[in-house]
Design a protein that fits this description.
The chain is α+β, with helices and mostly antiparallel strands. The protein has five helices and 20 strands. A hairpin with a 5-residue loop joins β17 and β18.
Length: 310
């Protein structure tokens, strides 16, 4: 029993010594300062501290973090001698794309990182300024220009031709449509370039006729019903550019067919004047009409004049 009591007295003495001997207690609890390394956005510096965790260390050194900044190890991690703390600062950038502005605080290194972080999908033809491998800097404006391509086919009408054919079974000055014309169709294929949704270029890739045009055939009548006939000399005079003549035997407005007896050439003229008054002269042709059937230098030619009744 005495031995047990002595043991407890010894223990009590050590406890009292620990709690009531101030100098020894302070010396025992004191924590020594130690060195750590900090990399703040690539800038490296060293510091000493005796704090317990990363958060206390940041407060001690007045290092603040933005809402999107990255730090390793985390602020609640314990800190120890030789610790390396890495801080990466988020960079504010603006991305202009698809008629909108996307503001972003990014931890990326280059333009490609910022675009990927914003969830923007690029096509192979899109243009990016600055280039994808350009380094980011604060308040950088990134512009994405959308380039799209499309191939389209366009139909164009091909006009038909109007063809006149003479027909001696149809009365002179009459026209008949024997075949109605139809327009053809040409198909053209284009490659269109769109820049931010607007057409900026169009290239013709090919063209083919999918329907041939059909000519319209007009029949022009040449059948003449002849009335009174004369034979004699024709002269000429200059009076405008119309196919006209002067006559003493046929009334104004009447149509006449005049044929050169020497070469068989004919011309149809309309009477718009009276004359000629020379001997054996039956008609005076306007210069333009005279040239159709004879040499203007001849002055006078032998002709047959036929009255046209139709």
């Amino acid at each position: 029993m005495k031995k047990v009591l002595l043991f407890f007295l010894i223990i009590l003495a050590f406890v009292l010594l620990y709690f009531f001997w101030p100098f020894e207690k302070r010396h025992f609890d004191q924590k020594k300062a130690f060195a750590v390394e900090i990399s703040d956005n690539g800038i490296i510096f060293h510091a000493t501290t005796n704090t317990h965790d990363v958060s206390d260390f940041l407060k001690e050194k007045n290092i603040s973090l933005g809402g999107h900044d990255y730090i390793f190890p985390s602020p609640d991690a314990k800190i120890f001698s030789g610790q390396k703390i890495i801080i990466r600062r988020a960079v504010p950038v603006t991305i202009n794309v698809d008629n909108q502005k996307i503001k972003l605080d990014t931890l990326g290194i280059n333009t490609r990182d910022a675009i990927n972080e914003a969830g923007i999908t690029l096509s192979h033809a899109d243009k990016i300024n600055p280039a994808l491998d350009s380094l980011l800097k604060p308040d950088l404006d990134i512009v994405v220009t959308r380039i799209n391509f499309e191939e389209i086919s366009v139909e164009e009408n091909i006009p038909f031709q109007a063809v006149e054919k003479e027909d001696n079974t149809v009365l002179w000055r009459k026209k008949e449509t024997k075949q109605k014309g139809e327009r053809g169709i040409r198909e053209k294929t284009y490659k269109i370039t769109y820049t931010n949704g607007k057409e900026t270029n169009r290239v013709l890739l090919g063209s083919k006729i999918t329907k041939q045009p059909v000519s319209q055939i007009e029949v022009v009548g040449t059948k003449i019903i002849v009335g009174k006939t004369q034979t004699g000399n024709a002269t000429w005079y200059s009076f405008g550019d119309d196919m006209t003549c002067a006559s003493l035997d046929f009334s104004i407005g009447k149509y006449l067919r005049v044929t050169n007896r020497a070469n068989g050439k004919s011309v149809i003229v309309q009477v718009n004047d009276t004359g000629p008054y020379g001997k054996d002269r039956i008609i005076d042709l306007n210069k333009k009409a005279f040239q159709k059937i004879g040499d203007i230098g001849a002055g006078v030619i032998r002709v047959k004049v036929e009255e046209i009744l139709n």
